[in-house]
Amino acid sequence: MRIYLAxxxxxxxxxxxxxxxxxxxxxxxxxxxxxxTDPVHCPAADAASEDWxxxxxxxxxxxxxxxxxxxxxxPFRGPSADAGTVYELGxxxxxxxxxxxxxxxxxxxxxxxxxxxxxxxxxxxxxxxEDAEGLHLxxxxxxxxxxxxxxxxAAGGPFVTRDVPEEVRWRDLAxxxxxxxxxxxAR
Amino acid sequence: MRIYLAxxxxxxxxxxxxxxxxxxxxxxxxxxxxxxTDPVHCPAADAASEDWxxxxxxxxxxxxxxxxxxxxxxPFRGPSADAGTVYELGxxxxxxxxxxxxxxxxxxxxxxxxxxxxxxxxxxxxxxxEDAEGLHLxxxxxxxxxxxxxxxxAAGGPFVTRDVPEEVRWRDLAxxxxxxxxxxxAR
Lengths: 187, 187
What we know:
- Two copies of one chain form a homodimer.
- Chain A has a single domain (2-108, 143-185), classed as Rossmann fold (3-Layer(aba) Sandwich).
- In chain A, 41% of the residues lie in helices and 13% in strands.
- Chain A contains seven helices and seven strands; from the N terminus they run βαβααβαβαββαβα.
- The longest helix of chain A has 15 residues, at 51-65.
- The first copy, chain A, starts with a strand and ends with a helix.
């Protein structure tokens, strides 16, 4: 099974080492890991006049060519996962292929949103929480926005969360390996 | 053209009024706006044992039944757009149908990320910016994460940004109407 490895670790200075580590775990489980920065045949990207568009088109080609996707949904610069990773998760769900997620933060989304907002979070008369602009906080006890949890659930995939020490949260791969194992087991 | 109206305004206490206003603008341009909370025939959602899953499945049914999507990509609790909206954008792009975006914040993504990080943003020796954990800040001069800008561009859609006063950023619909106009014009 060729699995696209979505996640913000592409932004790490040693992204290549992470790619290798994930690829090795995939191989150990009998699968092939595809990292966003891997080369891929994509004439549209080769012809693109802008670097960022070429990167986009290659990522899209990788996803279209993969049989499944595992997303690193560890919260990224805010209460939710990295926007690019979430885009790719929705993309693969629409293609109808298996998707899985993992996060190295176990705190539920509502609590995480309240922690992020701090004193700006307030209660409505009905007891629900909202932010300083009056926008409601989801309170379903989920791991992230309901579209993320819902897409993974609808696809029958796992969404594994684990608390790991802050300083290794972009490198600890135990939750990734568990999601990989569960994804392959569900085939 | 039946257009799915993605955006975090579903979290507003008066989401219904926003839905009506967007629907009226769609009608004025000869299109039909579909709001996430509109009723939809979805047996899987009717059979779902959990409310959040039923909401997810109805949103997915709405998107699958729509001919295009306009996403409100105004930054939401962090430098990027709302995670649920971004998921839906990627989903519709994978279906190969027209997508458009708008944002009521004109500041480029890199500057917005630096403003969000504050003193935690620092320069690498090569001059690039990174966060306190060493993760790179995208610096392509885009409106949001490159997967968002890239998906809209690859689909040939508009991504309209406008600065509006902070207190009306969830209700001002000028950028929405411009995106709607450009989307319909490109047919």
